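SAMPLE LOG
Freezer: B-3
Tube label: C17
Construct: single chain, 140 aa
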Amino acid sequence: MSLGDLPIFTMMKQRLHWLTERQEVLAQNVANANTPGYEAKDLKELDFGAMVSASGSMLAPVATSPGHIGSPVTGAGFGLGQARGGQIQKSPDFETSPTGNSVVLEDEMVKVAQTQMDYETVSTLYSKSLGLVRMALGSA
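STRUCTURE (predicted):
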């Protein structure tokens, strides 16, 4: 098993893929800002809880002493492949032009900037985490 196959790295890679796909959808929205009848689209947000639950076997807490506080841990059996990417969904908006176009450029630019910041954050976290694991293994 390579370092990149660890569940946390797999989840970060999936988030990066999702952010890339979202950027493409937002770019299509901006490109069609003047197209009559075009409805703005966005990707359905990834469910991080489902990704964690599907990342492998879950460790259940075991009370070995009567003084331990119980903490039930349950998971939803989603596969990692289901969390990758996202479903394109129409993002309804009250601001639709007379031609039927629902793209608001200001909103799209805010979403593009947020997606860019999220991508930079996750890619930095990925590279730093990978460096820490390599350092811990003594191969850095």
